[in-house]
Each structure stands twice: as structure tokens, then as C-alpha cells.
TrEMBL record:
Enoyl-CoA hydratase/isomerase domain span: 12-329
UniProt entry tagged with the keyword NADP: no
Catalytic function, reaction form: 3-hydroxy-2-methylpropanoyl-CoA + H2O = 3-hydroxy-2-methylpropanoate + CoA + H(+)
Gene Ontology molecular function: 3-hydroxyisobutyryl-CoA hydrolase activity
Top-level class of the enzyme under EC nomenclature: hydrolase
Pfam families named among the record's database cross-references: ECH_2
Enzyme Commission number(s) of this protein: 3.1.2.4
Protein name: 3-hydroxyisobutyryl-CoA hydrolase
GO biological process: L-valine catabolic process
Top-level taxon of origin: Bacteria
Length: 342
């Protein structure tokens, strides 16, 4: 059985993520297959919209197949990111309605294939995160575009802490266009297949669920994570007496210090860039970060040895070298990311 399935239901092009045992972690073959199918459906007059779902009840898509990248560390596989980022861009610019019905975990690469489409529907089982700084990586797959466009400083908070958000939070912070419970997903697909207008179907079923992040905590996020530097943000978290600040600080202090610096820098830059320039920036970063120690150490500690004790270099946030961080953003001489014409 294929890891990704395609079928036509009425006027809907249906994509089903089917790598269930791996929580639908994306492989290069899955990226290629989705990219190719979207091209075909874009030019097919019998397809009016594309719907993306998961065959798993636990996960929509838990990310990219990072362990595969770790295994290829002797010759870092940049081709995976090259094609993945081009796919993210194609989804962002897709000419037909692209509807993601998200049920379960959506992280990393899963965010990249779902949250750049026109409609993002989250169920009561949704858990969103961009946890890359915890493995010495950075929020990629369009994170540099998506995160700074979240409400207030919530995207900066997510980028630096890897915080997990639930259904109501995703709606509150602007990640989702609609919150609809999973029991209605089959009805959505059926009605769209019959040709009902997307907005009519989704708006009729939409809810406004209670977020887990309170308004008071949101104000705290905006106040603290608007700081100019990582040092400013960490200092403000330490000075706050609010339990939420203590929790956020504890989360960040377990992450790769270098990755946290890169994450803040990319979010700040991404706020003023268009989508394609964000993806070019991310390809510059990934081209350098795959040469760093922290990524391989983070994957080892999280996915390989699973000891949860990465040895970051440096371990101390105060020892992160600003020039080293900045070097991740420098233009690539001969290998800048390019995009296919649509």
C-alpha cells in the first residue's frame, strides 16, 4: 500500500496520508508524489478543489523523516529539503481551493503541506507544534512566513519554545481558518464532492472552541516575546512571576541555544518577506545547519538513542556566537532555491 493515496471523489481531488506506522512522516517519495498530483489536478477541469486528510486517527503528519536525514549525515541530503520547500511554495500558490482536514498531531513537515493552503480545518484532536529547536534544527517548511503572521507574538513563542497548541489555540492565533470536530469530516468531504461551495460547507459546521492559552497568557506572550533579542526574552521570562513564563522558560532552556537564536532571527526576517523569499532563506539556513553538530546530536538524543540528553554546542545561551548565527542566512553562491513555473 502506498504511503500517500490519491483519488477523485466527485469534483474533489482527495489526498490521504497513509504512512500510519510512522505517523505519516514525509519521505522524499511522498513529496514527489504529492507535487506531481497537484500539477495534474490543477490542470484538470473536473477537479474543483483538493482535500488533504490522514488515514491515522493519531496523527495528521508528525513531520519529515528526520531520522533518514540523520542517517545520511556523511553527505547531507539537501535534495529532500529542496523538493519539500518547492512543494510548500506550490501549495501556497495553488490556484484551486486546497483544504486540509487536520485531525491529530501536525508538526514540522506536516505543517508545511497543510497550513499554507487556502483552508485549514482543525479538529478537537489537533496538536500543533513546530518543535525543531529541540533537535538542533529550526522551524522550516514555511515557518518563517507562517509564524510571524500569527496573532501578536504567539509565533515567536512557538518558534523558540516548541510549544504545543490545541484546536482553540490554532483558531485564536490565526493558524486555522476553521475549527470543526472530526465527526464532521466525512460530511465535509461528501458535500464538497457534490459540488457545494467550500465556504458554505465549512462556515456552517465551524465552532469557536475555548483555547487553552488564556487572554492573560496571550498578553504576557506579546509583552515578553516582543523582545529584541534572545537575551532580552530570556531575561523577561526570568523576571516574570507568572507560572506561564516559568513554564515557557523551562521549555526554551532545554532547546539548542544556537537553534533558538536562529529561530528568532528567521521569524523577525520573515515578517517582511514574501513566501518565496522566506523559502529561499530557509534553504540557506538548512544548507548550513546540516553542517552543524547540534542537529545530529539532537536527533541522536531524541530519535536514535532516545536518552533525552543532548550535548549542545554551546550549552549556554550566553555563549552563542552572533556571527555564527548570521552566517546561516548568507546567500548561497551557486545553489539558491529556485521554483518551477506554474
Amino acid at each position: 500500500m502506498s504511503d500517500i493515496l490519491f483519488e477523485q471523489r466527485g469534483c474533489v481531488g482527495l489526498v490521504t496520508l497513509n504512512r500510519v506506522k510512522a505517523l505519516n512522516a514525509l519521505t522524499l517519495d511522498m513529496v514527489h508524489a504529492l507535487d506531481t498530483q497537484l500539477d495534474l489536478w490543477r490542470d484538470d477541469d473536473t477537479i474543483s478543489c483538493v482535500v488533504l486528510v490522514s488515514a491515522s486517527e493519531k496523527a495528521f503528519c508528525a513531520g519529515g523523516d528526520i531520522r533518514k536525514v540523520w542517517e545520511g549525515r556523511a553527505n547531507p541530503p539537501l535534495d529532500f529539503f529542496w523538493h519539500e520547500y518547492r512543494l510548500n511554495n506550490a501549495i501556497h500558490h495553488y490556484s484551486k481551493p486546497y483544504i486540509s482536514l487536520i485531525n491529530g498531531i501536525v508538526m514540522g513537515g506536516g505543517v508545511g503541506i497543510s497550513m499554507h493552503g487556502r483552508y485549514v480545518v482543525v479538529s478537537e484532536n489537533t496538536t500543533f507544534a513546530m518543535p525543531e529547536v529541540g533537535i538542533g534544527f529550526f522551524p522550516d517548511v514555511g515557518g518563517s512566513y507562517l509564524l510571524p503572521r500569527m496573532k501578536g507574538q504567539s509565533g515567536t513563542y512557538c518558534a523558540m519554545s516548541g510549544a504545543r497548541l490545541k484546536q482553540g489555540d490554532c483558531l485564536k492565533f490565526g493558524l486555522a481558518t476553521h475549527a470543526i470536530n472530526a465527526e464532521n469530516f466525512d460530511a465535509i468531504l461528501s458535500r464538497l464532492s457534490d459540488g457545494e461551495p467550500v465556504d458554505d460547507v465549512l462556515n456552517e459546521l465551524a465552532l469557536i472552541p475555548e483555547p487553552t492559552v488564556t487572554d492573560e497568557e496571550s498578553l504576557l506572550i506579546d509583552s515578553i516575546f516582543g523582545g529584541a533579542t534572545v537575551a532580552d526574552i530570556l531575561s523577561a521570562l526570568r523576571e516574570s512571576t507568572h507560572p506561564f513564563a516559568a513554564k515557557a522558560l523551562a521549555q526554551i532552556e532545554t532547546k539548542s541555544p544556537t537553534s533558538v537564536y536562529i529561530a528568532l532571527a528567521e521569524v523577525r526576517r520573515g515578517a517582511s518577506l514574501d513566501f518565496e523569499d522566506c523559502m529561499r532563506m530557509e534553504f540557506r539556513i538548512v544548507s548550513r545547519i546540516l553542517q552543524d553538530d547540534d542537529f545530529y546530536e539532537g536527533v541522536r538524543a531524541t530519535l536514535v538513542d532516545k536518552d533525552g540528553a543532548p550535548n549542545w554546542n554551546p550549552k549556554d545561551f550566553a555563549l552563542v556566537n552572533a556571527d555564527r548565527v548570521e552566517a546561516h542566512f548568507a546567500p548561497l553562491q551557486d545553489s539558491e532555491l529556485t521554483f518551477k513555473s506554474s
